[in-house]
Amino acid sequence: MTRLPGTLAVLMLDQQAAIEVALACQAFGSPPRNHPGDWYELRMCGERGAGEPVPLRSGFDHFGPAGPFELRATHGLDDLVSADTVVVPGSGDVHGDPPALVLAALRAAHARGARLVSLCSGSFVLAAAGLLDGRTATCHWEHAPVLAGRFPAVRVDANILYTHDPDVLTSAGLMAGIDLCLHLIREDLGTAAANAVARRMIVPPHRSGGQAQYMESPMSVPHTGSALGEVLDWAMARLDQPIGVGGIAARAGVSVRTLIRRFQAELGTTPSRWLLTQRLGRARELLESTGLPVGLVAERSGLGTAPNLRAHFAREFGVSPTGYRRDYNPAPALR
Predict the structure, then answer these.
(1) In whole angstroms, what is the distance from residue 145 CA to residue 162 CA?
(2) Phi, psi torsion values for 312, nearest 5 degrees
(3) Contact residues for 119 (Cβ-Cβ < 8 A; gap 6+)
(4) In angstroms, rounded to a whole number, what is the distance separating the alpha carbons of residues 62 and 48?
(5) pLDDT tens digits for 283-307?
(6) Is-annotated flag, keyword GTP-binding (predicted)?
(7) Of residues 114 and 57, more confidently modeled
């Protein structure tokens, strides 16, 4: 069942990334061509009121001087409180809180029944207002540890693209913000409207998988002077071979139990988990940089067979190896 779009307020804060403010305007600012019926009434709400300039950043950094962009608010915080939907683009500072007046306005909007939506690090703003306590929330994967550390009452999930509680929704970074905007349009006005906006923005109307497929996978580094360093190098050079935890322990000259203790103490993980992570990383490298068939990628990364590789990719990244390659290496695979 669709709902009328109503009024939609975009919260404008100093130092936000200009592209995320623009993203919300692009998605909700005007209806797609030939759209029948109502559309959103857009309000650009600034802390200092209508007509006041808001400095924005040209990039995603959360430190240093503001960028060269400046927008003028069309409305103030009172208009945000009375809106049906409030969109909060990325915060300008993930280490500090917005002004108290802003947080109070968000709490008041939620109390009167508004739907609150954060894009990327905008979840920090909702969390500072106490509106994410006890909820699952997400943000850009780079900021997820900071969000979890600053707001322990929030269940941070760095893998998903967006959350969709009926009254509070959060998204990961940039493209996931578009995903969430399209999700809202789909809920409010139906699939046809969402698809039309997606075509106008030249993006898919829905993406599969989660953030894990976009995260970097650095190798854990042991403490300086640790004997594990040589063992890890040895294992990395043999990922395509049938080495297991027993083989790593034998190379280190210790029992499996001792090896597990050392991995936990120095790397914060288990040998088996470390080995799987490195093999998946190798598979990702091969999918991104070669046209090798999926079966050969599985062999060369030590994951054995194509079905095994697919199972691991589905579980870890929420996407198939073929789908991953399609995004990162569109050249045709070898036959």
Answers:
(1) 17
(2) -65, -40
(3) 20, 23, 24, 87, 88, 89, 90, 171, 177, 180, 181
(4) 21
(5) 988 988 889 999 999 999 999 999 9
(6) no
(7) 114
Kindly report the pTM of this predicted structure: 0.67
List the domains of the chain with CATH numbers. 7-214 (3.40.50.880), 228-328 (1.10.10.60)
Cα 300 to Cα 196: distance, rounded to the nearest angstrom: 42
Interacting residues of 114 by C-beta distance below 8 A, sequence separation 6+:
81, 83, 84, 85, 86
Asked if residue 282 lies in contact with residue 235, where contact means CB atoms within 8 angstroms, the answer is no
Distance of CA 57 to the CA centre of its chain: 20
Structural tokens at position 315: 């579980």
SS (H, E, C) the chain: CCCCCCEEEEEECCCCEHHHHHHHHHHHCCCCCCCCCCCCEEEEEECCCCCCEEEEECCCCCCCCCCCEEEECCECHHHHHCCCEEEECCCCCCCCCCCHHHHHHHHHHHHCCCEEEECCCHHHHHHHCCCCCCCEECCCCCCHHHHHHHCCCCEECCCCCEEECCCEEEECCCHHHHHHHHHHHHHHHCHHHHHHHHHHHCCCCCCCCCHHHHCCCCCCCCCCCCCHHHHHHHHHCCCCCCCCHHHHHHHHCCCHHHHHHHHHHHHCCCHHHHHHHHHHHHHHHHHHHCCCCHHHHHHHCCCCCHHHHHHHHHHHHCCCHHHHHHHHCCCCCCC
Give the full edge-to-edge strand order of the sheet including 115-118. Answer: 41-46, 7-12, 85-88, 115-118, 168-171, 162-164
From CA 110, how far away is CA 129, in angstroms rounded?
10
Tell me what pLDDT residue 60 has: 60
Residue 331 tokens read as 């050249």
